[in-house]
Prior knowledge:
This protein is α+β, with helices and mostly antiparallel strands. Helices cover about 20% and strands about 35% of the residues.
Amino acid sequence: MRAHLGDQLVIESPATGATRRDGEIIGLHHEDGTPPYDVRWSDSGEITLVFPGPDAHIQHLRPGPPGSPHESPGTTGEGENRSAPPPSGGAASPGDFGGWVAAERRRRGLSREVTAARARMAPEYLARLEQCPTAPALGTVVRLADALGTSVSALYDAGVDLPPGQGHALLHPRLRDLAPEECRALLSTHGVGRVTVSTPDGHPAVVPVNYDVIDGAIVFRTAPESVTASVVDEEVAFEVDRVDEALSVGWSVLAVGRASIVTEPGAVRRLVQYAHATPWAGGERAMWVSIRPRSLTGRRIEPADQ
């Protein structure tokens, strides 16, 4: 038994031949494709290490000539289509991975057969993917992104109005603490972060702001009457993070320090001169708030063997 990433492992009933369970092979432990395999089961989404028994077989999802080890699944030796679903139609909805793949394919004027050949998969398998709302294993997404001339992150994110981190976790993750110098580097020069505030009714809240890092201080612009202006002269926490859905890795940095208003004309001119970030919320936001961290901590999730 030999398999490739993206192939299907099917376990059948010895008595009836009916499929009892199937899943996508997302990890190989031998270069020649022999068992065991890391399999993501279609019925539960669970990932397990599998040593296939006599009741299991591989459905190769790459196209190949009839009778070859890579004959397309769902076809007979004469090419008769046995299981391809109807084409995906209509507009894709947020979170509909397959719908967005189909829409992007049509937008680029590509047939399903041409796209499948570019992605090194069977047209029948691509048809199934275009009917599936969730993304397949990373290897399949990489091949699809290459076939469509787009990026992995674009395929994962297109039309998805969902919070990050809903992908599958790494098989062997490692969570490690970041040194202060790593945290400073990750804060970079500007971006979007979150600052803790206390609302007028006394309730805690977390507010996103467009920030810069200038002379070692986290700075952002706001309006005197805004809720973020209430952080002045308070001890606050400021958080920034990044998540890579495709690789299931990410990091977060937490800065803690006292917030102050910047009023000295020379300091204000320097902030205006060197700031990159413009408040996305718009409006008149001429009040500069500075947070000089007294502590920087962070954590990163990465593969254990990295």
